[in-house]
Every structure is written in C-alpha cells, then in structure tokens.
C-alpha cells in the first residue's frame, strides 16, 4: 500500500509488484526484472548498487517495502469504519432530533466500498504470506547448492518476522471485516426502521387526505343534488311562466280592441236620435296622437330594456373580475 497523493476520497492505493530474478552460479551475478516496483524498492536498489548483492537481499527488501504501510493503512480503514459505526450506534430511532445523525443510503454504499477494499487487503496479505513461504523455501534450496555468507544466514529469521507481521495484519483485516459487517447490518436496520416510520407518517397523511377528499365528494354530491332540485324547480317555474305568457298573448288582441273601443278615440254614432237607426264608428281626429305616442313609448321602453340588460351584464362581469383578482 502506498500514498498516492491525489485529492480523492481515499489517499491510499494498492500496488502490485513482480520481481523476476536470475542468478548465475559461475559468476555470482544476479539479473532482476521489476514490474511496477515500489519507490522503496528502487531506493533500496540505488543505495546498494555498489555493494555485492546477496541472493535474497532484493526479496527481503521487497518484503520490507510490502509490509511497511499495512499498519498505517489498516488504521486509516479502522477510522473510516468507526465514523460509520458511530452513526449506527448513536442514532435515535424512535424520534429524530434536530442534531441527530442523518443516515442515508450512500452511507451503506460507503460501507460496502470499504468492505470491498478490505477483501482486497485480505487477498493481498495472503499473497504476501505465500511470498514469504516461497522465500524461505527458496533459501533452503539455495543453501544446498551455493555457499551462504554470514549475512545470509539471518535471512530465514528476518523473513519469518515478516511472515509474523503479515499474519498480524491479516488477523486485523479479518477483524475489521467482522466489525464492518456488524456496522453495515446495524445501519441497514436503522435505515429500515426510519423508512418504515416515514412510510407510516406518509400513510397517515394520505389517509387524512383521503378522508378529506371523501368528505368533499359527499358535500359536492349534496350540492349537486341541491342544484339539480333548484334546476327542476326553475324548469317548473319556467313552464308555468310560459303557459301564463301564452294565455296573456291569447288575450292581448282582445284587450287592445277593448281598450281602443272603450276610449273616446273611436265612437259609435247614429244619423239621428231615433231608435233602431243604423249606427257607424267614427274615428276621432286626434287618433294619430295615440299612434305616435304609442310608437314613441314602445321604442323608449325597448331602448330602456336593452340598456338595462347591457348595464347589468357589464356590472356582473366587473364583480367577477374583481373577485378573481382578489
């Protein structure tokens, strides 16, 4: 594990490194090929370039570089888990407070990402343990072939120390996996309970709205029935008025004739005062006054009706516009 120095959510990155070593028995020289080497390995090779390399010196340096940052990285992961675990352990479920922890779905996503990184850590530490076992086996194979210097005799114990450290890191990573598993389950339960409470509150509000809508529908139905009854009464009144209008129109000509003949505009006269003498109608010379006055008054009445209807319509529209704007 190495610090990459980039501005990201996690400042650590996992590096994979491969070393291919070829040792020439006759000359005692070593050729090595590094694939994606860590900076610590390159520094160790540069610093020790003038010295005589042992068979396992580069492997020991690689194990040292691989083990150096595991403790700091696992501590960083532990702190990440503690933040989410604090939310899970100290979040209220029964009633939320203004300063309570806000648990969202992205918290579970963060926990899942940390769990994935821990699984990669476990696999990497197991791989490191396999490398240490392979180095010890390689040392024992080399002992039977090549002469070993006094410095190289300490390599098995050094490699075994690295194996012990890798096993400790592995146990710690496995413990963090169990730790984050409990945190994830508790966060899921808290989020589930809060969502259930939110659903219950929403269901109650929906039930209240449904009752209000039902009450409004009943009132609307009653109003509709009242309006229907009023419309029926209006229709009956209209029918009655129509019948009365027809009766009045039926008697209008007779009323007009009776009014005209009962006035002094048309008179019945006889040629002399004797009885049983033929009579005739005499129209008064001022009859044209009646016709002119009737025509003028009829026109004035019609104009007043038209003006009143237009004024009533404009006044009613003004009231509706004022109510709408207010």
Molecular structure report:
With 326 residues, the chain is mainly α. It is built from six helices and six strands; from the N terminus they run E-E-E-E-H-H-H-H-H-E-E-H. The strands form three sheets. Strands 1-2 form a two-stranded antiparallel sheet. Strand 3 (18-23) and strand 4 form a beta hairpin. Helix 1 (39-47) runs antiparallel to helix 2 (57-68) and helix 4 (105-143) packs antiparallel against helix 5.
| Through-space gap between termini | 71 Å
SS content category: mainly alpha
Helix content: 55-70%
Specify the biggest β-sheet: 2 strands, antiparallel
From N to C, what is the helix and strand string?
A: EEEEHHHHHEEH
| Structural shape | rod-shaped
Features:
6 helices; two-stranded antiparallel sheet; rod-shaped; 70% helix; 326 residues
Provide the fold topology.
Layout: E1 2-3, E2 12-13, E3 18-23, E4 30-35, H1 39-47, H2 57-68, H3 70-90, H4 105-143, H5 155-262, E5 266-270, E6 279-283, H6 287-325
Antiparallel strand pairs: 1-2, 3-4, 5-6
Sum this structure up briefly:
With 326 residues, the chain is mainly alpha-helical. The chain has six helices and six strands, in the order ββββαααααββα.
């Amino acid at each position: 594990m190495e610090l990459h120095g980039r501005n990201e959510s996690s400042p650590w990155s996992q590096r994979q490194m491969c070393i291919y070593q070829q040792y020439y028995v006759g000359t005692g020289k070593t050729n090595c090929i590094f694939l994606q080497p860590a900076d610590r390995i390159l520094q160790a090779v540069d610093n020790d370039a003038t010295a005589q390399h042992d068979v396992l010196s580069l492997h020991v340096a690689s194990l040292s570089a691989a083990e150096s940052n595991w403790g700091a990285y696992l501590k960083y992961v532990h702190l990440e888990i503690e933040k989410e675990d604090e939310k899970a352990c100290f979040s209220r479920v029964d009633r939320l407070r203004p300063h309570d922890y806000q648990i969202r779905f992205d918290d579970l996503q963060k926990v899942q990402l940390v769990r994935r990184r821990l699984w990669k850590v476990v696999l990497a530490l197991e791989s490191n343990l396999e490398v240490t076992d392979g180095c010890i086996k390689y040392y024992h194979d080399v002992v039977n072939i090549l002469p070993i210097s006094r410095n190289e005799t300490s390599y098995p114990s050094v490699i075994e120390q690295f194996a012990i450290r890798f096993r400790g890191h592995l146990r710690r990573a496995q413990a963090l996996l169990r730790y984050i598993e409990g945190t994830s389950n508790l966060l899921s339960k808290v989020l589930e309970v809060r969502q259930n409470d939110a659903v219950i509150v929403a269901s109650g509000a929906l039930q209240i709205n449904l009752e209000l809508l039902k009450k409004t529908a009943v009132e609307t139905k009653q109003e509709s029935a009242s309006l229907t009854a009023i419309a029926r009464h209006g229709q009956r009144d209209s029918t009655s008025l129509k019948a009365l209008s027809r009766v009045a129109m039926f008697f209008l000509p007779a009323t007009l004739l009776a009014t005209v003949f009962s006035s002094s505009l048309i008179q019945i006269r006889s040629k002399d005062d004797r009885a049983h003498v033929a009579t005739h109608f005499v129209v008064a010379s001022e009859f044209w006054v009646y016709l002119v006055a009737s025509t003028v008054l009829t026109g004035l009445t019609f104009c007043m009706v038209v003006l009143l209807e237009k004024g009533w319509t404009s006044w009613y529209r003004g009231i509706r516009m004022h109510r709408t704007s207010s």
